[in-house]
Structures are given as structure tokens and as C-alpha cells.
Amino acid sequence: MTAKILDGKAIAADVRAKVADEAKRIAPKLDRVPGLATVLVGEDPASEVYVRSKARATVEAGLASFQHQLQADTAEAELLALVRELNADPAVDGILVQLPLPAQIDARRVLDAIDPAKDVDGFHPVNAGRLATGLPALAPCTPIGCIILAKQVHASLAGLEAVVFGRSNIVGRPLAQLLLQENATVTIAHSHTKNAAAVSRRADLLCVAIGKPELVRGDWIKPGATVIDVGINRVPGSAPGKTKIVGDVAYGEAAKVAGAITPVPGGVGPMTIACLLVNTLRAACARAGLEPPAI
Ligand code: NAD
To answer: Which candidate in 108, 112, 242, 284 could, as Cys together with 34 as Cys, close a disulfide (CB 3.0–4.6 Å)?
Structure first.
């Protein structure tokens, strides 16, 4: 068997095109285009790349992008003041504070200061709590992307055995909640799980977010299963001094057994930014009392 490859780049482009259509439809009702504010503190090169690509995708989808860059030595109080300003700004529907933050700033305090209605990363405890209790919530972007990818294979996830490896607040936990909402039978595996391979082999839908290069081997996968690999790991490449990116799943082995699989890179990664735009539209609609966008 050779697995169907879930092309995250193409699927994300499709989601972004839908965001652009919906933004056009919603703008006259809001009397403005939906807007996303990004906040970057310091000059971490990886964070700069992420924030720039988020801002570019925002503008390309026809949304307004408000970019804020603060010095690396910014005091926590100054960042909190900016967050409060953005909370109060009617043109801003979504606020994204890029992590990690410098050591002098308590990231939790900053994330907690974001208005939950504008929390497009879905990291605020109010949104995590709403998601866990089945109320409408802004959910984290990467898990939303995983659900969209899984639905490329399964029209409905109801009744599927879904196993999620990882229980972080950014990926594993919220992904498990979204899968429950989809009526899957959900198991969460983590660093204390015994017989991880056997647990993994139960899965019709296997989602892996652990940050361990190629930990999940081909013989961990039930034949025909759908495999969503969230991991992004930089490892030594074949040429000396070169590195390459691999997932948490041994792709070559897994693709021989799985029914469908996401590549790394080019699977889950591109979905995350597309889903950030979806969340910005959702936030804009909810704040204006409009129906949620049709995405
Ligand atoms: P994290 O370090 O916060 O959490 C890792 C989780 O994996 C923990 O819950 C831990 O219990 C579990 N774990 C660790 N070792 C394990 C093992 N041997 N067996 C089972 N579970 C184990 O990581 P995170 O922020 O959730 O990210 C996970 C991976 O996903 C990383 O590689 C990260 O780079 C990647 N990631 C990708 C995207 C994307 O857009 N594609 C977004 C976020 C994270």
C-alpha cells in the first residue's frame, strides 16, 4: 500500500482563497475589512520570519494587518499596555503575540491580558475552557488545521478511533477536544504512556505532536490509517554541516502502511497560518454579531 499524500500547501491555499471570498462578503457588513494585529518583541530571526509570513498571508487574503515590533528589552508593563490598546481598538479583530517572549516578560500574563474575543491563537484560558466544555470558542490554529486535513480523507470523523500523541496546550490537548467535538473516540498518549506502539496501532486517525524526530515507526501504524504528523524537527542532513526538517513520524516507513499521510514539511505547517486567518474572520463575525464564516 502507498499512502495518499495530504498536500497541506495546496489545501492551505484553498482555505486562504475561501478566507479571501468570505472577507469580501463580510467587509460591507462590518463597514471595514477584518484586521489582525501581530506583536513581535525582539529580533529572534525565526520569530521574524513567522510574523512576516503571517502578515503577508493576512494582506494577501484581503484582511488588514497591523504590525507592532518592540525592542528586545521592552518591559512587561509596556507590552501589556500595547495589548490593552489593541483590545480597545475596534479595527482589530485578532491579536497575535509571537512566542517566545524575552525572559523579563511573563508570557502567561501577556496571553491572559488579550481579550478572549480577539484571542485568535486560542491560548487564553477562557477559550481553552470554552473549548473543553463544548461552547463556541476560538481554538488554536494548528489543531484546526489537523481537523481540516483529516476531513480531506474522512467526510465524518464520528466513531473513528483517534489517537493523539502529545498533550501540550498548543496542539495535543486542544486537538483532542476538537476530535471529541467531531464525535471521534479519543485517546491521548504522552510521555508516560505505556506500550505507545500498541496504543498507536489502535488508531484509524493518528495525530502526532511530540517533537521527537521520527519516533513513530511504520509498525506503529494500523494499515490504512490516516496519519497527521505535526512535528517539526531539525536534524543533521546527509551532507556534512547541513540540516533537514523531519516530522515525528518516520515518513518513508509510514507511507507504506498508512492510507493517507501528511508530509513534513508541507503538511500541517502551511495549515497553521491559513487557520489563523480563519480565526480572524471568526472573531470579526462573532464581535459584530454576524453568523460565523462559511469555512
Ligand atoms: P511540547 O514539547 O509542548 O509537547 C510535547 C508533548 O509530547 C508533551 O505533551 C509530551 O508529553 C509528549 N511526548 C514527549 N515525548 C513523548 C513520547 N516519547 N511519547 C509520547 N508522547 C511524548 O510540544 P508542542 O508545542 O505540542 O509541539 C510538538 C511538535 O509539533 C514539535 O515538533 C513542534 O515543533 C511541532 N509544532 C508544529 C506546528 C505546526 O504548525 N506544524 C505548530 C506547533 C508545534
So the answer is: 284
* 140 pocket-lining for ligand 1 (C-beta < 6 Å): no
pLDDT tens for each residue of 226-241: 999 999 999 999 999 9
**What are the residue ranges of CATH 3.40.50.720 in the chain?**
141-270
For the domain spanning 28-116, the CATH number is 3.40.50.10860
222 as an active site residue: the answer is no
CATH fold of 141-270, please?
A: Rossmann fold (3.40.50)
Q: Known catalytic residue: 9? A: no
- Which alpha helices (H) appear in the chain, and where do they start and end? 8-30, 45-60, 76-88, 107-113, 125-132, 141-153, 172-181, 196-200, 251-257, 268-288
Q: Are 226 and 150 in contact (CB under 8 A)?
A: yes
Q: Which of 93, 118, 119, 121 is catalytic?
A: 121
- Ligand 1 pocket check for 247: Cβ under 6 Å: no
Q: How far is the CA of 106 from the centre of ligand 1 (A)?
A: 22
**pLDDT value at position 1?**
67
In the residue annotation, 69 being an active-site residue is answered as no
